[in-house]
């Protein structure tokens, strides 16, 4: 269990909280335009996002996928020679999951929801680039004004669909949407369309993912180019959808060894959070950039956490180290939360964390050996033959959480293919991998060590060796829930009915597990706010969201007025969005 | 003259006698049809799971499973509709013109007469639609219509299992779509464990969907009828929209449609009633208003 984060681990500070926004989906357009650090990699990605053809934009949370997409969208909006661009986020997909227990056509409803979300985006773009400001896209389907929004709302909140909703649901087809997009593009003087589909990893619902891939296959055309942002290690794409055949994959992750890395991060901080850099020495800043591990949002958060501690000149080094340790803790906590959401992954997550620690340990030992040399070791190599489906899944989960970064595989001789990974640098820094021996916490020395080139070969390990070194006796398995009727353990992953009582085996809804999460685990809520809510018997995220009017209910609690109730609702919604995406 | 007996082409043994009176027993169960359906099919699921631990089912087992499942589906509809005819007045009225055998009328107790109305097969979409049409469900919800497509295909597979030991015949191939099945004519029905489990799952989902929609249809219909001044049915009772008073009228419907033994079980009766009432909110408001109006008017008329 992750439980409540203790004060030391809190990266977010209430006093500073509202000063700026790290998440690109909450950032104003002007900031997107002016606060964006550009560079060769960035320009290339934006070019690909505006070009023809299907693209998967791959990167861990916070690496800037949303930012890139919104930037590309604005570029298209502002330039007539660019395509008609539609931006929409699918991050609410999991809120449709409960429909799968109430309706036999839940997948069809999800299908309509995706199309409706695309149309909402198309409506917004058309209002900006060609059509009247009050243009309502419902007119293309012969439904009343705002009917599209009503359907989206009803589906996301699991309301009973009324006759108008059902009618629109039946009218929404990929072909119809393609026609409307082509029409709107033409009316806007654009020759083609790009669909920027953000948060399209849909990792928590394979059934919806299958449905989504079907939409992609059909909607893709020479005139319509879908671009989807996904997490690394999202394996579901592999089985029924070959990204390499259907389109191309582009990494949004900025490699820390890239020569322009430091400058890019620095520019982002200068534009988005200049005051965060005051009093921060160049070594401290560089180290924080490394610890952010290619994630601009993480760099900004780290700067904020350092500033919040109000370090003196002499305490800066220890503050930076402490903040990096806490960043590591938070990344691990995020990884663990996946095991809480998806019961069947519990063992994979637990063993995965231990495996990750083992990898960090192996790298630390190797760097001790490299102390007097001019090289570092940050890359782990595992022989391809050593992987089986479960260990692959475990490594994919670590990659999805951003704890391991997948590098290109390399061959060591004709028979030996190695898969290579770089563990999160914050974890290596926290484990003192780059400050062996007596050099202590001198930030300059750590930075010097990290900026060394990598040694030629990766640190090679087998899964069994890493597990043995960690004292792990547990073997990898999926934690399939027992039969909900008789409690009999399942005999295999694919079975549909219990072998003991014959009852259909049904997995618990991930949505319900998220709703059952404790309020005291929501980041950004102070112990004071948590205790106030608990005094009103609001102990879970679901209890708050189930209230008819959560805002008024919160304001009935003594000492909670508008500002605090707004703050609670924002934090809880952010948390839920984060957990569900 | 003694002639030597000529042995037949195929050797036979004495014919055993079958006493059908010994073959049936009363179970005394009073489960809801959906509960019984789930129990029946779960029993098949257990047999299937036991026989397919490390191998796919044999073609014979595939046929038996499909037959068993379809038999459970037919039993569900037969029990549901016949019991509905005894508890729901509008169904009773709709079936008023149906004819019964005199022998049944003479020998069977009054409360099980409706059972004799449902002797025919339910294992085809046409039959099923006709039976649902008779009780007033002529326009089916989309969810049922979609599920009926799947049900129809499985019914054709069943037909092959019943009449041709699982071999696909011309007529069924035609009904399933000749262009996709013509090369399979004469082929033996042999599904994998997963495919058979999918058929089982589809039939369970189909029946549960029908159960939910028929429940909603018959209960909502009482409200519509009671709310319609033009409806010429003589009601002996009316919804008061107070649980305590309405409980006795709602209970027969709940008992007939709720899943109580199977898992996950339906919500309790009180919650089910609340959902029923909420689902008819606008009609409830109309009825309450009319009732209030009636109360105000009545004394005036008396006074006049």
Task: Describe what this molecule looks like in 3D.
- Chain A: This is Zinc ribbon domain-containing protein.
- Chain A: InterPro entries: P-loop_NTPase.
- Chain A has 581 residues and is of the alpha/beta class.
- In chain A, 48% of the residues lie in helices and 9% in strands.
- Chain A folds into three domains: 23-251, P-loop containing nucleotide triphosphate hydrolases (Rossmann fold); 261-475, no CATH class; 516-580, 5' to 3' exonuclease, C-terminal subdomain (DNA polymerase, domain 1).
- In chain A, the strands form two sheets. Chain A has a five-stranded parallel beta sheet with strand order 2-3-4-1-5, sandwiched between helices. A four-stranded mixed beta sheet of chain A has the order 7-8-6-9.
- In chain A, helix 6 (147-156) packs across helix 7.
- The model of chain A is unreliable at 1-20 (pLDDT under 50).
- Chain B has 304 residues and is an all-alpha fold.
- Helix content of chain B is 62%, strand content 0%.
- Chain B has eleven helices and no strands.
- Chain B has helices at residues 33-51, 59-87, 89-94, 102-107, 125-134, 142-164, 170-181, 193-227, 243-257, 269-279, 281-303.
- Classes of the chains: A alpha/beta (581), B mainly alpha (304).
- Chains A and B meet through loops of A and helix 1, helix 6 and helix 8 of B.
